[in-house]
UniProtKB/TrEMBL annotation:
It comes from Rhizobium metallidurans. This is 4-hydroxy-tetrahydrodipicolinate synthase. InterPro entries: Aldolase_TIM, DapA-like. GO terms for cellular component: cytosol. The keyword Transferase does not apply. It is an enzyme of class 4 (lyase). The keyword Lyase applies. It comes from the Bacteria. The active site is at Y134 (proton donor/acceptor), K162 (schiff-base intermediate with substrate). GO terms for molecular function: 4-hydroxy-tetrahydrodipicolinate synthase activity. Its EC number is 4.3.3.7.
Length: 304
């Protein structure tokens, strides 16, 4: 499997009682398919996997596959503190016919690079399907580095990495020493730099509610190789990325979905929703972004 384009880590809508709203979840998936993103991820942190039971995660992935069918690639997250649990999520992903799995570091455990590699390869052996690694030390506590990549990179199934360390040195390490592991941007405000270093995909939560704008940046940089246009789009997107890092990431993504008419509901404890001031600020940021990117892309079309 080749990872190219925009991959959306889908939100998990909740009803008023805090239960998963399957009808609203299906609507989110359909909106992404209609917007022509290139793939969908379920069971990621944007989907609040950490606040779901094992059974909810199994059921949500199976339902996503039922809704999506073969219209878009489906990637299922296997994140868990116990390797045994990650193995079960990986096996279930294979059973439902998912296209790939997302393999991260077990949070809180703080494994060494060798231990972390053994974790990933154990999950790999259990599923034997394409893997996108997920390096996010801010959440997991440790960095995937050269020793880790040297070990896991020997598996034919390890085809890509969502690189979310924010460390440009790790981007350079991957691009130069491990070019067979396809780079995918996982640190939103570095998307332009990732594309300049050869990344051909971007896993971006903001595409839940601004898919066309995220696709526009990918197309400008990767398809058209027009980095002047890409810089202009990126500049317009940075205020959103700054807002998303205010400490209420999932809440902001969910309110963004509400802005465009999708039913998202609240977030599960211990998180709390945005307050009214935060909602108004996000609404202003989104409106400005859409207007600015719209002008850039329509202007480019006129001059094409």
């Amino acid at each position: 499997m080749k990872f190219e384009g925009i991959y959306t880590p889908a939100i998990t809508p909740l009803d008023e009682s805090g239960q998963i709203d399957r009808k609203a979840f299906a609507a989110v998936l359909e909106s992404l398919i209609e917007a022509k993103v290139h793939g969908i991820i379920v069971g990621g942190s944007t989907g609040e996997y950490y606040a779901q039971t094992n059974q909810e995660r199994f059921d949500l992935a199976a339902y996503a596959k039922e809704v999506i069918g073969n219209r878009l690639p489906l990637i299922v997250g296997t994140g868990a503190t116990r390797t045994e649990d990650s193995v079960e999520y990986a096996k279930a992903a294979k059973e439902i016919g998912a296209d790939a799995i997302l393999v991260s570091t077990p949070p809180y455990a703080l494994p060494t690079e060798r231990e972390n590699a053994v974790h990933a390869l154990t999950v790999d052996r259990a599923a034997n399907m394409p893997i996108m690694l997920y390096n996010y030390p801010a959440r997991m506590g440790v960095m995937m580095g050269e020793e880790y990549f040297s070990r896991v990179g020997k598996s034919k199934n390890v085809v890509a990495i969502k690189e979310s360390s924010g460390e440009m040195a790790n981007l350079h390490l991957l691009a130069r020493k491990f070019p067979h592991i396809a780079l995918s941007c996982g640190w939103d405000d570095q998307a332009l730099e990732f594309f300049a270093w050869g990344a051909r995909s971007w896993v971006c939560a903001g595409s839940n509610f601004l898919p066309k704008e995220h696709v526009a940046l990918y197309e400008a940089c990767v398809v058209e190789k027009n980095f002047d246009k890409g810089r202009a789009i990126m500049s317009a997107m940075l205020p959103l990325m700054d807002f998303l890092e205010c400490g209420k990431f999932v809440q902001s993504i969910k309110h963004g979905c509400e802005i465009i008419g999708l039913k998202a509901g609240s977030v599960r404890a211990p998180l709390r929703p945005l307050n009214s001031d935060e909602k108004r600020t996000l609404e202003t940021v989104v409106a400005t972004l859409k207007r600015t990117v719209g002008k850039i892309t329509s202007g480019a079309n006129r001059h094409a």
